[in-house]
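Weekly modeling sync, notes
Attendees: AB, CL, MP (scribe)

Item 1: holo prediction request
CL wants a bound-state model with magnesium ion before deciding which constructs to order. AB pointed out that an apo prediction alone won't tell us much about the pocket. Agreed to run with the ligand included and paste results into these notes for async review.

Input as submitted:
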Amino acid sequence: MKADTHGAAQRNQPPDRYVYDFADGKATMADLLGGKGANLAEMTRLGLPVPPGFTVTTEACRHYLKTGRLPSGLDAQIARHLALLEETTGRRLGDVDDPLLVSVRSGAKFSMPGMMETVLNIGVCDATVAGLAKRYGDERFAWDCYRRLVQMYGRTVLGVPAEEFERALIQAKVRKGLAADAPDTALDADALRALTRHFQRIVRESSGQEVPQIPREQLGGAVRAVFESWDGKRARIYRRREGIPDDLGTAVTVMTMVFGNLGADSGTGVGFTRDPATGAPGVYGDYLSDAEGEDVVSGVRNTLTLEQFGTLDPDAYRELRRHMATLEEHYRDLCDIEFTVERGKLWMLQTRVGKRTAAAAFRIAANLLADGRIDEDEALSRVTGEQLAQLMFPCFAPSGGAVAPIAKGIAASPGAAVGRAVFSSADAVARAAAGEHVILIRRETNPDDLPGMIAASGVLTGRGGKTSHAAVVARGMGRTCVCGVESLEIDEQNGTATVTRGASAGTVISAGDLISIDGTDGSVYDTEIPVVSSPVVEYFEGHGSQTGDPVVAAVARLLQIADRRARLGVRANADTPADAARARRFGAHGIGLARTEHMFLGDRRPIVERLILADTQQDRANALSRLLELQRADFTGLLAAMDGLPVTVRLLDPPLHEFLPDLTELSVEIAVADATHQPVEPSRRELLAAVRRWHEQNPMLGLRGVRLGLVVPGLYAMQVRALAEAIVARRGDGGAPLAHIMIPLVAEAHELELARAEAKRVLHEVDPGLVVSVGVMIELPRAALTARRVAEYAEFFSFGTNDLTQTTWGMSRDDAEGAFFPAYLEHGVFSASPFGTIDPDGVGTLVRAAVKRGRWTRPDLEIGVCGEHGGDPASIHFFHQAGVDYVSCSPFRVPVARLEAGRASVLADRAAAGAGAVGSDTR
Ligand code: ADP
Ligand code: MG
Ligand code: MG
């Protein structure tokens, strides 16, 4: 995202133009005008009723934040545009008879709802309040504007705590004999005048300053305050959480005020052109009569639905529907809007392409496509693999609103988890060991909490964002996590979590209580909510019919397009026939990585032990032939499940000691037996000696992969023979087996040359007519760097990006993620775990180099990726561009990879064509 922070639009402007009239801007100028300013300009160009105004650019903001001064010439430019505004509206700022009032609004390129400041009613002061009252024939209204200005200006520009005003407002109501929560509209002109004066005293006492009596000064103060709000704590935290760069700055929009607080035929509202929760067609929104701006969300009074607004003011409502339709038509997407009605006259105050849930994203894209409003490429660009992944997690059964969350936090790691609340790692481990499901609640987590996080079904924290320890570790382990639930006061000592805000304030969760957390939307419930399997997964699995489900239908449609559009193939990492069959149902075109280690585990361990301990050729041959039979059956099953599609079998990779007992445990067992004079079987002692012999300080860098194949006689030959015999057997049964052999952990071409020669020899022995290609896993930097020579012996490449990342960074995933990744993310050393998303600069450079060098030697070299990055959206786009042929990922991730493979083609084609969409905030 950093790359486009200084977009082309910006570069093409003369550097000294800092102000744009609405009529001079457009939606694609969000870099410069912010999303709000750009879209106001767009609505103006569309002929919608937008109060006139102008926007000061983000460039001016950046200048101000860097130097502490407004750019020279800005004042004059604002004055010129203000004069234009005065001419258009026929009113003047500060005019005592007919004063112009304006709002000063923040608006960055990416929407940051509620994070920055807006000041309404700039222009009202002692000198103009009477003129304003006279102009509208409403004294109460004029003082309402004035007290609102003092309140907003005091809070945002002069830093007066909001509570001080709220307290004074309640006092004013009580003084009138009203209830503390009575609507503001119950205060008359006199009460509002008194309140305005009270607010002014509060400002004076709290800040030592005054709200300026000169409107031009009010305007200047508000503009600076909006600029400064970009660097406010709230905004900074929000940006870090959402991955928005810190150097964009905000634009400032200055806009003629229109008034929703002019009585019953006025009001203000917000709306969506479709349901942002479900994607269902039809408009949604809220309206509040006799109100201004923030009143709608403040919840002081009950709002009306848009439908109810329709009965209240049919004309304005009809017009609103028309404008909403125009906007949808124009942006070809769900839009959200803000509007105000001033004495029956409708004004549009804001629009943007609206945020939506994952389900809504799919449904809306498919609907718009079916209606012919967008084409297939555009539909694909409207959904993401991450959204699809969300739709595949088990979820809470919909309660139809019957169960409300008691608190909300940041959705840090998806899934739906139910369990008993525990407040310490030890407690989590103990209860989980007793067979209970638990949710670990911590103020924040640290590496000591790891055992508890592993034991828990879900993790909830009171503090921290998407890069906190809890979030990073939970995502790494696939645990559901909700973090940063700030409305929960967590007392770890006493084992309670108390809701401090909102409708459930006072609710207490105690250790042992059943709770539910939703890692997809951040909700916390103080009860057990039934978990249901995702309808999308049910559909892939072919269980029952989900064709009636509009979200499932949308997913199916978009995947169909993605498959057609993709250049990257998608295969699965699967070791068993069951996994292979599932991968196939999920749309995998083959197996990109079949690990053979599980074939050495379970009840086969004793045979492996015999192989390792064998003293004689004969013992070894016996053990190998036992394993051969078993592996042949394994391979036959795998080839049957993937009949007709490629199956890439990786020969044994992990160090052999992984198949032997643990050194410490075995040593202790024998030491204890000796100390207590118990007899010890000689074979146990032999085993211990072998375990000692095979023990390694750094097993990940030790005797594994091809090294094992070259050092343990007969091991790889046995595996190749088993595979060859399985192929022959399948053919005999009329199948169409398509196997490849992959040699792991090669660093040097000669290693591969030896391993391959042996494999080819065995293949030939089994059946001279057998053609099975032998390829290599590129997972060590040296193999990537020498890929030109490696490719002389490799019939295909497959990047093992887990090991490649581990060996390039010199850090082990298992140890690093809990220990120092959160700190690294916090310091910005990297913005995402390199094990989750490929590091394009380091590991990515090795990948690109290996692709290029490999194809120097073999222009038609087939190249895949079989690390976990194969299922990660951002990485998939990288692999598409690097010229890889396919990615391979876990069966469950296959649909995500298919979707992203299609999207990668679309986005790459677009970037090549230099096309840009109209919508500016469609992240
Ligand atoms: P946010 O970005 O937090 O939504 P806005 O700049 O949109 O802040 O302002 C909040 C509200 O103030 C708007 O929804 C609108 O109701 C009101 N508002 C802003 N400008 C005007 C105006 N010129 N006339 C009337 N109301 C306005
Ligand atoms: Mg707004
Ligand atoms: Mg590996």
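Recorded for review: The CA atoms of residues 743 and 776 lie 5 Å apart.
Action items: CL to compare against the apo run; MP to circulate these notes.
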